[in-house]
Design a protein that fits this description.
- It is found in: Cytoplasm, Cytosol.
- It holds the Pfam family ROK.
- InterPro entries: ATPase_NBD, ROK, UDP-GlcNAc_Epase, UDP_GlcNAc_Epimerase_2_dom.
- The protein has 24 helices and 26 strands.
- By secondary structure, the chain is an alpha/beta fold.
- The strands form 5 sheets. The chain has a 7-stranded parallel β-sheet, sandwiched between helices. Strands 10-9-8-11-12-13 form a 6-stranded parallel β-sheet, covered by helices on one side.
- Helix 12 links the parallel strand 11 and strand 12.
- The longest helix is centred in the last third of the chain and has 24 residues.
Length: 722
């Protein structure tokens, strides 16, 4: 075991009460089952799982090849408030014998149902540690009170969102016993949509139904206002009948009021209506496919505001049952309705739309985090819960550094020679870096980018890094709003009108930012380098080519056609050498690595490059490195070429000072240190006196392109988080 203070396996009891909580618990159960060297799993089934009217859903647990240790019939029929109370009482009577027999080290309890309250109460009174899944969330009806009551009984907490984590801290729960893991069901959701789905749609809705041309409806009673929730259900069915689309209607749960809702369905003839299919239960794997490809989902189930967002399916959330839940932009709320008109209008607004996939509730890596958390539980620690006082503000100030360290970005640098992918922390530390030679064709290049990013994202989970998004730095002119490379440099072939955002976002289920490498270098300096805190500065990259980025009033300047800061193509001589852009006399034609390589080859061809202490191997290509080496060893012609290149760059900087008037110029890239003194000399000789005091410095960042790509992610996401 890792840290639990025992030499024996951890005995885990998972208790499931209904189809909804099993969809969240099943991924954890599979994970536990896959590690028999660490865990023993006991499964207890109770509640509506064992009732025929609700589909006898215990069978799906058996079909998943789990051994059910105990079946407890705990539901008192009646589907009213009194029956719910009696069901809790019956469970409390039966559970002690089960727990005495199983003697688990820890019990995993999910959510906010009345059955779960009975489980948590029994375990707490019998000194069994409780791990509560999905605590800290806010919704409507009695579920809120039950959820928070279970939180106070539980010893450990696995929450799905940062807001839920903060709510738990506000409730004085021990931060060290809270894990922000994401929703376990997302581990299955985010890998599900590409599977064969048409056969599932046809099985449940008919052979003539097409993807995105049907509705899934799932509505439950609101136990704190049963009469009103039944009226809302009536209006919903009226609106669906009028809307005239094929609809899959799932029966409500077993809460008080469900019997009346079923009567409404039958009164309106839903079970026999040609446009409706009414079912008690759909297996979760199939339900995922149905909502992923629906034209719309309607009702008041938490599934609508949580899981369905992973697919961008439009959702209409009715009434107050989920009030307070965090939702993506795919959810349209209808809080109240006196007639069907408002619901019908919402259907017209939402049906058939496709929204961006939302990852509010998870990133698909919850289960590995939960298993690691379970392994870390020390059974030798005192069982007595500790509540953390004073209240939340002090706790947050103590813990924010730790929180920020775990947040990371996936950075991609697409250069002329190499493709680099890195995991970059909030503090600008490169946690891990991957490098490959860049393929020559578009298809090979895209496939390699996807492959490297998928591998890095998987590795990030093992390194305890939560990836917030992907930032891409690439050569050429980029439309950052759309994530498209409009035109590339000659160094990267087949790289015009390339959409980088869509394939990466679809594969990783993460937001993606794309920008030019010069702009990324400026962003890196703004966040991590010498531009930090400055309102206006310019970055010049001296490498294979010459690029740059402009920060004005703390913001990056892109220009009307995304062509701002092409500083390498400032013309400094009307009769200068040809440039790769098609013009001549550009800074890049003098001072880039390509330009120095061109001059080095000329000297070498004339036997004027090599001096004592130098050699070039037979098969070795002459490069800018040889020119710089020759200059250092006293080669006058090499020194003259470097001086000319530095002067051209210096004249470009003078033009920048006169045009933009920044407070700082940062030279970045491998050639920066060779040019800095010449550039400063040119400024002293050529610049107006009013700008001669502007400092020119060499960047101290090792990987500005990667850090800049990461900063696009970290700057945007931390504005929303911190």
């Amino acid at each position: 075991m890792e840290k639990n203070g025992n030499n024996r396996k951890l005995r885990v009891c998972v208790a499931t009460c209904n189809r909804a909580d099993y969809s969240k618990l099943a991924p954890i159960m599979f994970g536990i089952k896959m590690e028999p060297e660490f865990f023993e799993l006991d499964v207890v089934v109770l509640g509506s799982h064992l009732i025929d009217d609700y589909g006898n859903t215990y069978r799906m647990i058996e079909q998943d090849d789990f051994d059910i240790n105990t079946r407890l019939h705990t539901i008192v029929r009646g589907e009213d408030e009194a029956a719910m109370v009696e069901s809790v009482g019956l469970a409390l009577v039966k559970l002690p014998d089960v727990l005495n027999r199983l003697k688990p080290d820890i019990m995993i309890v999910h959510g906010d149902r009345f059955d779960a309250l009975a489980l948590a109460t029994s375990a707490a009174l019998m000194n069994i540690r409780i791990l509560h899944i999905e605590g800290g969330e806010v919704s409507g009806t009695i579920d809120d009170s039950i959820r928070h009551a279970i939180t106070k009984l539980a010893h450990y907490h696995v929450c799905c969102t940062r807001s839920a984590e903060q709510h738990l801290i506000s409730m004085c729960e021990d931060h060290d016993r809270i894990l922000l893991a994401g929703c376990p069901s997302y581990d299955k959701l985010l890998s599900a949509k590409n599977k064969d789905y048409m056969s599932i749609i046809r099985m449940w809705l008919g052979d003539d139904v097409k993807s995105k041309d049907y509705i899934v409806a799932l509505q439950h009673p609101v136990t704190t206002d049963i009469k009103h929730s039944i009226k809302m259900f009536e209006l919903t069915l009226d609106a669906l009948i009028s809307f005239n689309k094929r609809t899959l209607v799932l029966f409500p749960n077993i809460d008080a009021g469900s019997k009346e809702m079923v009567r409404v369905m039958r009164k309106k003839g839903i079970e026999h209506h040609p446009n409706f299919r009414a079912v008690k239960h759909v297996p979760f794997d199939q339900f995922i496919q149905l909502v992923a490809h629906a034209g719309c989902m309607i009702g008041n189930s938490s599934c609508g505001v949580r899981e369905v967002g992973a697919f961008g399916t439009p959702v209409i959330n009715l009434g107050t049952r989920q009030i307070g839940r965090e939702t993506g932009e795919n959810v349209l709320h209808v809080r109240d309705a006196d007639t069907q008109d408002k619901i019908l209008q919402a259907l017209h607004l939402q049906f058939g739309k496709q929204y961006p996939c939302s990852k509010i509730y998870g990133d698909g890596n919850a289960v590995p985090r939960i298993l690691k958390f379970l392994k870390s539980i020390d059974l030798q620690e005192p069982l007595q819960k500790k509540f953390c006082f004073p209240p939340v503000k002090e706790n947050i100030s103590q813990d924010i550094d730790h929180i920020l360290e775990t947040l990371s970005a996936l950075a991609v640098d697409l250069g002329g020679t190499n493709l680099r992918v890195a995991i970059v922390s909030m503090k600008g530390e490169i946690v891990k870096k991957y490098t490959q030679f860049i393929p020559k064709t578009y298809e090979e290049r895209i496939n390699l980018i996807l492959q490297m990013c998928v591998e890095a994202a998987a590795e990030a989970v093992k390194l305890n890094c939560r990836i917030l998004g992907v930032g891409i730095s690439t050569g050429g002119r980029v439309n950052p709003r759309e994530g498209i490379v409009l035109h590339s440099t000659k160094l990267i072939q087949e790289w015009n009108s390339v959409d980088l955002r869509t394939p990466l976002s679809d594969t990783l289920h993460l937001p993606v930012w794309v920008d030019n490498d010069g702009n990324c270098a400026a962003l890196a300096e703004r966040k991590f380098g010498q531009g930090k805190g400055l309102e206006n500065f310019v970055t010049l990259i001296t490498g294979t080519g010459i690029g740059g980025g402009i920060i004005h009033q703390h913001e990056l300047i892109h220009g009307s056609s995304f062509c701002a800061a092409e500083l390498g193509h400032l013309v400094v001589s009307l009769d200068g050498p040809d440039c790769s852009c098609g013009s001549h006399g550009c800074i890049e034609a003098y001072a880039s690595g390509m330009a120095l390589q061109r001059e080095a080859k000329k000297l070498h061809d004339e036997d004027l490059l090599l001096v004592e202490g130098m050699s070039v191997l037979k098969d070795e290509a002459v490069s800018a490195v040889h020119l710089i080496q020759a200059a250092k060893l006293g080669n006058a012609k090499a020194q003259s070429i470097l001086r000319t290149a530095g002067t051209a760059l210096g004249l470009g900087v003078v033009n920048i000072l006169h045009t933009i008037n920044p407070s700082l110029v940062i030279l970045s890239g491998v050639l920066a240190s060779h040019y800095i003194h010449i550039v400063k000399d040119v400024i002293r000789q050529q610049a107006l006196s009013s700008v001669q005091d502007v400092d020119v410095v060499v960047s101290d960042l090792v990987d500005p392109a990667l850090l800049g790509a990461a900063s696009m992610v970290l700057d945007y996401t931390t504005r929303r988080i911190c």
